[in-house]
Amino acid sequence: MCALVRRDDAGLGELTSFIGRDAEGADVRRLLGSGRLTTLTGPGGVGKTRLAIRAMRDAASGFDGGTVFVGLAELRDPALIANLVADRLGLHDRPGEPILGTVLGHLRNRAALLVLDNCEHLVDACAVFVGEVLRHCPDVVVLATGRQSLDLPGEEVLPVPPLPVPPEDATPDRLASYDAVRLFLDRALTVVPSMLVTEETVADIARLCRGVDGLPLAIELAAAWVRALSPGQIADRLTHGLLTAGPRTAPERQRTLRATIDWSYRLCSPAEQAVWRQVAVFAGSFEPEAAEFVCEGAAVLDVLDGLLDKSVLLREEHGGMARYRMLEMLREYGHELLERDGDLTEAMRRHRDWYDRLTAAAEAEWVGPDQESWVDRLRLDHANLRTALEWSLREPGEAAAALRMATRLDEYWTLRGSLAEVRGWLTRAYAATPAEHPDRPMALGVGALHALWQFDVGVAEALLAEADALLDRADGEPARTFLCHVRSLGAMLQRDFETAARLAAVTSETFRAQGDLRRELHPLFILGVCTSVVGDLTGAREVVRRMLALTEKAGEAYYLSMAEYARSCVEVLYGDAAVAETASKSGLRADLRIGNRFGAAHHTEALAWVAARRGQYVRSATLFGIAATLWDLVGSSAEAAGSLATPHFDHLNEAREGLGADQFDHARAVGEALPEAKALAYALGERADVEDQAGGERLTGREREVADLVGAGLSNRDIATRLAISRRTVETHVQHIMTKLGVDNRTRIATWVATANR
C-alpha cells in the first residue's frame, strides 16, 4: 500500500514542453532495463533533471513496486538523505531502528525505481546510501543525476550532452529542425505568441544556440528576453558577454553557462538583482509572503513576476496558492553573490526569523479551521524549516531560536512521522543552549513526549528528570503541567491506567484553567480511555463527549480523529459496537483530510475489532490486513503499543476462530495487498467487492503454485520453464490471481503469498 496522502512536493510538474532527447531517453530506458544503477552526468543546466523525470515516467510501467523521485537540491545535511527518501516513500520513523533500515526494509522486496536527483553536493553520502540500497534491495533500480558519477561497482554512467545545434553551414530550411532551435522557439513563442518567425529570425536563433553551446538552461534564459529584445539582439549581446567572460581555467561549458547567467543577471533591473540574491536563501519552494519578508520590500511581488518572466523563477500551484522555486544553478549563483557582498548572514537571519514566526503562528492556530492548510504549508516548507534550524545551530549565538522552533508543533512532527529527526534537532539544541535557558524545561518535555511515541521510555524519564530539576529554579507552570501530561501518557503506554487517568485529570483541568485548549485535548483522550479501562463507562463517555464537542467546535481534524478513536475504543470494548463503528469511520475521514496515517492505522484497527465483535469475521480479517500495512508504514504495530496489545489479540483470535485459520489468513492477506484507495474505501464501507475477494473463490491449486513462484521473484518466463507450461498460460494465471485477490500488480501478489505462508 502506498502512502495515505501523497502531495506533489517534489516539484515534478512539467510546466513546459519536453523538447528532443529521444536518443538519450532511449539510452536511459535501455540501461534501466539491464542494470541496477545508472547515473546521468553533465554540467549544470544541461537538462539532467528533466531527462530523469521523463525517463522515470516512461519506465514506470516496468516497475511493479512503483517509482519515487527524490530531489536532493533542497538538502544540505548529508545525514538526512535517508530521511528525505523515507518522506518521499511515505514512511514514518520506526522506534529503535535507524531510518536507513526503515527505507531498506520497505524497498527490500519491491521492484521499484528510485531516482536521486542533484547528487553532486552530497556525492559521498549518496554513494554510501545507494550502495546500501543495491546491496540489500535486489529488485530496486537506481537512477541518479549529478555533475559526477557515484563511482560504485556496476554503475553505468551516461553523460548528458547539450542539445544539438546547427552547424554554421546548415541550410536555412534545416535550421528549425535542430533541438536547440526548437527549444528556443517553443519558449520564446510562449512569452510572445505573436513573434514573427522568419528565415532571418531562425538564423539568429541558430547563432545564439551555437554561442551557448546548446545548453538548455542558457537557451531558456535567453528566450525569456524576447519580450524586450529580438533574437538577433539577444544573440549579439549574449555573444559579446560570452567572449568577455572568465575565468578561462573553468571547463568550457561551465564558463558558457556562467557567462549566460551573468548576462541574464546584468540585464535584470537593480530591484530584480536584489531579489534574485535574497531569495537564493530559500530551500525548495517558497511563498510570496516569505519572499517579501526576507527581501524587506513593498514591491517584491512585482519583482517576483519580473523574475518569473525572465525564467529565473518557476511558479507552482499548491491548493490554489502560488509558490515560487528557483533552479539550483541560479540559486547557487545568487547565494554566491550574497556571500561575496557580505550579506549572507543577514539574509539567512531574516529567513530564519520568518520560519520562527511561521511555526509560532501555526502553533497558535493549530486547533482551528485552518489546520488542514497549516499541515499542507508546513509540509511544503519542511526543507526551509530544516535550513532555518541548521543555520541557527551553526551560527554563534542563534541556537536558542532552534530550541524554540524544534519545541513547537509536536503534532506536526508526529503527523509527519519524523520523530527521530525532530529528536535529533532537539538534542543538538540542548547541547548548544545554556542549561538555565527559560525555554529548556518545555523543550525537554517535548523531547520526552517524542521519545515515548517511539517507546523509548528510559530516555523519556531522563529528560523529564532533567526538566524537573530546572523547574525547581524557575517559574514555569505551563511547562510543569506539560511534564505531568507526558507522564500520564507514559503511564498509559505502560498499562498503568489508574495513574494515567489520575495525572490526565489533573493536567486537563489545569490546561483548561490556563485557557490552553490545544494542550487540554490530549490529556482528555488519555483520561477518557483509561477511565473506561478501570471500569467507569459513564465517566469515560462524559470525558469523550467533552473532547468531541471541543474539537468539533474548533473545526480541526487532528484531535477530532483522536477523540473519535477514544469514543471507538470505549464503545467497542465496553459499550455499543455500532457507535464505535460510526466513530472510527468519522475519525478516518478526519485523517484523510490531513494525511494522518498514524490515525488511520488506529481507526482501521478499531474497525477490525468492531467487525469481530459483530461476527463479521471476513471483514474483520480483511481490516486486520489493511491495518497491518498501515502500521508498517508508520513504523509501529498494535502489538508494540502496550495499551492496544490485549484487545488486538482478543479480537484477532475471535475472528480467526470464527472464520477458520485458512480463510482468516486468506482474507487478511487480501487486506494487506489491497491498493491504498481501495483499502481505505473498504474500511469506510464503500467497497463491498473487496469482501467478495476476501471471502469468495479461493485460488486453484495451479494458481496457488504460480502465486508462490511470483512471490519467490520469478518472471513469467521463468515460471513457464519451471512448470513446463506456455508463457501465455502463465500470464492468464497471473491475471486470474490478481482478479481473485483484488490486487493490481505482482508485488502485491508477493505480499499476499508472504502473509499466507506465515
Give an overview in words.
By secondary structure, the chain is mostly helical. The protein is 66% helix and 5% strand. It has 39 helices and 8 strands. The strands form 2 sheets. A 5-stranded parallel beta sheet has the order 2-3-4-1-5, with helices on both faces. The longest helix has 21 residues, at 344-364. The chain is globular and about 90 Å long. It starts with 21 loop residues before the first helix and ends with a helix.
Q: Report the structural category.
A: mainly alpha
Question: Count of helical segments?
Answer: 39
Beta-sheet strand percentage?
5-15%
pLDDT averaged over residues:
89
- Give the radius of gyration: 29 Å
Tell the overall outline: globular
Q: In which order are the strands of the major sheet placed?
A: 2-3-4-1-5
How many E strands? Answer: 8
Which stretches are low in confidence, meaning pLDDT under 50 for 5 or more residues running?
A: 1-11, 245-250
Helix content: 55-70%
Largest sheet: 5 strands, parallel
Brief overview, please?
The protein is mainly α. 66% of the residues lie in helices and 5% in strands.
Furnish the topology, listing elements before pairings.
Blueprint (H helix, E strand, L loop, with lengths): L21 H13 L2 E5 L6 H12 L7 E5 L9 H9 L9 H9 L5 E5 L5 H14 L4 E6 L9 E4 L12 H4 L3 H13 L7 H13 L4 H8 L7 H13 L8 H16 L2 H10 L5 E2 L1 H8 L4 H10 L3 E6 L2 E6 L1 H13 L3 H21 L6 H10 L1 H13 L4 H9 L2 H7 L2 H14 L7 H14 L3 H15 L5 H17 L3 H17 L3 H17 L3 H18 L3 H17 L2 H18 L2 H17 L3 H17 L8 H18 L1 H13 L2 H8 L5 H7 L5 H11 L4 H8 L3 H15 L4 H11 L2
Parallel strand pairs: 1-4, 1-5, 2-3, 3-4
Antiparallel strand pairs: 6-8, 7-8
Helix pairs in contact: 1-2, 3-4, 4-5, 7-8, 7-9, 8-10, 9-11, 10-11, 12-14, 12-15, 13-16, 16-18, 16-19, 18-19, 19-21, 19-22, 21-22, 22-23, 22-24, 23-24, 24-25, 24-26, 25-26, 26-27, 26-28, 27-28, 28-29, 28-30, 29-30, 30-31, 30-32, 31-32, 31-33, 32-33, 33-35, 33-39, 36-38, 36-39, 37-38
